Amino acid sequence: MIEQNKTHSNAIALMLVTVGGTAVAMVLVYTILTSRGNNLSQFAIYLAVAGFIGGFFNPRGMMYPFVIATVSLDLLKRLLILFDRPTVMDLYFVLGIAPLMILGIFCGTLVGGIFGKFEIQKRHLGLLAISILFIIASGIVAFRDLGAALALKAIADSAAYSILLFIVPVLFQNWEEFWKLIRFALFVFIPVGIYAIYQSIFGLSEFEISYLKSGLTIMVKELEDVRPRPFSTMNSAHTLAYLSAFLMALSLLPFAAGREFADRFRHRWVYAILSILFFCVCFVTLARSGHVLWVVAVGGLIAFATKSRVIAFYGGAVACFVSLVVFAEKLILKLPEWDAKLDKSTDFLAQATRIQTFYDRLYSYSQLKNADNYSLFGLDFEVFTHDAITESLVNYGVLPLAVLLIGSAFALRKLHRSILRIETAGIRRITSLLLGATMAIIVCDIFFGGAAKTFPLNAYMWIAMGGVLVVLFQQNREQTGSVRQSNPVDSFTPVQSFPAPAMPVRPSSAPTHPIHEYPV
Questions:
Q1: For the segment 304-320, what is each residue's pLDDT rounded down to a tens digit?
Q2: Residue 221 buriedness (CB in 10 A; 0-12 / 13-18 / 19+)
Q3: How many CB atoms lie within 10 A of CB 2?
Q4: Cα–Cα distance, 250 to 128 (Å, whole number)
Q5: Do residues 206 and 507 make contact, with C-beta atoms less than 8 angstroms apart?
Q6: Less packed terminus of the chain by CB within 10 Å, N or C?
Q7: Residue predicted with more confidence, 509 or 109
Q8: CB neighbours of 124 closer than 8 A, spacing ≥ 6?
Q9: Do residues 143 and 149 lie in contact, with contact meaning Cβ atoms separated by under 8 Å?
Q10: What are phi and psi of 363, to 5 degrees?
């Protein structure tokens, strides 16, 4: 009888949810179709609110729709042109979906920690403090340079995703759970990559060209090129190149794990195909800096295995950057000569072999040799910059830049020491590849600019860094658990020693037995 009542109650609840959901959907559709303005942007508002609510009530589950949003929002932004003449506010409504999702996930994670749904430890709170400080510092600089309206947009587009450094280690307790999220991201990117190859072969669609001409994007310069470069659902060809190279590196995780985790990573040939597909996507964008990203990421997998290789990795990166700064002017003078010697017989080759675009980057490096660009807290006048180091020096000054570099050096030192202490080789390689992919985005931002602040690259950078911490925290828990199991006695309770009991004198006629030894 009780079971029948329970079944009946479930059926009634399901019917109410179905009817209520249908009614809400009909009201939303009616509101969208009858409202003034761009209907798609109106739909984006409801989608953003739904993303916040979903993130609040199911933070871990909402990470998967967030991954979909990272590769689809710019396409949704371009589709605005099909409904009505879009405005800047319409773009804000669409691009606000991902930040509201993250805000909902963050609030849901905090509330879940308070009520015991998630375990938030002291180290998690330390990560939260780091993220908040980063957002505050970025906000102060943005308000100073851009004003209130643009500063809020800049914070939502870039700094806000640093909160993933706290969210990911709380929501995912082991690397197997984190791998499910990465695997989902790899498969979600497949249609994005195929569409990029389609654009490379057949060109841009009419609605994409119309959007480029709308005046709402600086990517109109693509129409002035010999042929528009594919950008698929991303905001530019460079973002597409970086993201495809990043995911190409992460598709090698099953191979980095080695044979000892063959049962966890089945059908590795699928990921081999994905890595080839993502490489092709990076190639068709003709953005050469994308190849630097996957090379650095794979280099991290190899270099972070031993202490000497770690030193060589960072030493080589510093030496390369210093060389570019020292010889920037000489390289600028050589660029036209080298460019003239390259084959330009076709439009494709003209774009693929174009090296004079490195002029901006080299000129930015040369600014580091100008003493006038050095100040304690930034300059009052504008200086052209195209890399993260020069931009930080000019905008923030020597003191904040020094604090950032020294703090990053100490954090990386601690991370690498923790990774080198991982005993299982496969887990150590997985962690090295995740950290290598993170460092690859930072290296590209230092050398080329614009990588670590661009959505969705910044989101994936913090997700990968959070994945590194997931593995390290898991290793710490397992090591602590093994120590407790091997030594169940409370380490703070001294083991008492007792004197050996007095042995009775055995009669000479008694049978002999071995004398038992008692611990003293």
A1: 888 889 999 999 888 98
A2: exposed
A3: 6
A4: 25
A5: no
A6: N
A7: 109
A8: 113, 166, 169, 170
A9: no
A10: -65, -35
